[in-house]
Amino acid sequence: MLYNSTENANEVVSSAQAIAQGISPDGGLFVPQEFPQYTLDTFKELLPLDYQGRAKKVFADYLTDFTAEEIADCVDKAYTEEKFESKNPAPIVSKKYNGNDVNILELWHGPTCAFKDMALQILPHLLTKSLKKTYDGKDAVILVATSGDTGKAALEGFKDVDNTKIIVFYPVDGVSPMQKHQMTTQAGNNVNVCAIKGNFDDAQTGVKKIFTTPEISAKLAENNMLFSSANSINWGRLLPQVVYYISAYCDMVNAGKIALGDKINVVVPTGNFGNILAAYYASCMGLPINKFICASNSNNVLTDFINTGVYNKNRKFFTTISPSMDILVSSNLERLLYKLSGNNDVVTKDWMTKLKTESTYEVTDEVKNTISSLFFGGFCDDDNTKQTIKNMFDQEGYLCDTHTAVAVNVYDQYVAKTNDKTPVIIASTASPYKFSKAVLEAVKPDVELPATEFEMVDMLNQITNAKIPSPLASLKDKEVRFNNTTEVDSMPDYVLNALEIK
Ligand SMILES: *Cc1c(COP(=O)(O)O)cnc(C)c1O
Question: Containing H/E element for 283?
């Protein structure tokens, strides 16, 4: 299996190269040249396997330059019972919402309590093996700019992984107290965390500048190191997400909720379009999916795009209670457009260039029509998000986080509009305790909020009896290891110092 760049069909690489490089030199994203085809017989083989077994099969079909032993090593190190609370890292919880059955795929049982663990627990292992194949003997230096969730998930994934070092920058006033505490108490002998005096964009720009400064790269090379990326456009982050849709389908069949071959709908709370694209890629392999329901918050650029074929990022930016979806440029959409345009790198590059230069582009009628037949786009504002959390809790005693609530709400809109009762899987992307303040305000609108995040967690627990995930419960007593703050301009120096190569 080989991979192409979405913006240059002549750029052809192996999976190890795609993962080691992260992004193509032309600015495009790496995509598989074709999709492995799974028949009902393939699914029959997957049904009796556990999550890890299914993951090994899917990985083997895409990472053809990895040996079976290498893949097994990655999967077995990533999805352990110790890290994900149980043998199945992605359990389904079946509930009703406003009278309709909903199957909630809980993707947040990993060490940082958000779905990014599903990919970031395995990426370091895929990356170190990819580096061995392509740049043998070098250590990878991972730089991350984060607005909260990605930084912690990357730190947990890379901590104490041989031949890697990770440095995370976060905006000093731009993350929640819980997120900050999660990062500054990070364990591991190859990790470093630093606040910057600026916002998330400053952090992101600073990191990009370090990546592209030749003198810094040369300094790293002298010391047998090279920069690599744990960014969500890396193929090594997308592929692990394909697995859980396939595995969830098998679990639904085994539980008697559907028969093998039956179609399902999937609902995904969407930001960068990675998670929902993984569901689409699973369907390209033969997973029977009827509709992809794309749920946004008030930053509803994708809702408009699905409904009109016009993508326009030139609009008001909202800071919402589902912050991981506060995004106006959904990077992974590029991969969908490439596929739907018949693997056309020229038009894909043209649209992406227009997005950069004119902030907007319009796809062809053909692509527009395919998108509206496959996808449903909807959105939900903060008030309705809170109302949905309350309704779900009042109806079923089930507590969902703000991102998941956006998905539940948009699904409810979809059924009201279409009356399509195809069995549904809703991706649940974070523990409610990660967003305790908003969730607390939702279930108890007249509550007097306590002063600290940890008190909010305890109060939410007293009111709802929902279990506090152990990684969050134990956080309170952890010692702060990193309390550095730096100016944006000093980020390069910080990196060289941290790597001890100044
Ligand atoms: C990152 C994130 C999302 C958005 O996922 P995408 O793959 O970027 O669409 C949704 N919910 C939570 C909790 C997240 O952390």
Answer: helix 274-284
What is the position in ligand 1's atom list of the atom closest to the CA of 278? 7
Q: Which residues pair with 346 in a beta bridge?
A: none
* 258 exposure class (CB count in 10 Å sphere: 0-12, 13-18, 19+): middle
Instruction: For Cα atoms 497, 501, 502, give the angle at the middle one, nearest 5 degrees.
Output: 60
Instruction: Report the residue among 292, 324, 331 best suited for mutation to probe ligand 1: largest number of ligand atoms under 8 A from its CB.
Output: 324
At 143, list the tokens. 């730089």
Contact between 261 and 40 (Cβ < 8 Å): yes
116 assigned to active site: yes
Q: Does residue 271's CB lie within 6 angstroms of at least one atom of ligand 1?
A: yes
pLDDT in tens, 10-29: 999 999 999 998 888 888 99
C-beta separation of 299 from 325 below 8 A: yes
240 lines ligand 1 (CB under 6 A): no
Confidence (pTM): 0.94
Q: Is the CB of 404 under 6 A from ligand 1?
A: no
> Which pLDDT tens digit goes with each residue over 332-380?
999 999 999 999 999 999 999 999 899 999 999 999 999 999 999 999 9
Atom of ligand 1 nearest to the CA of 273: 9
130 lines ligand 1 (CB under 6 A): no
Q: On the CB side of 386, how many CA atoms lie within 13 Å of its CA?
A: 15
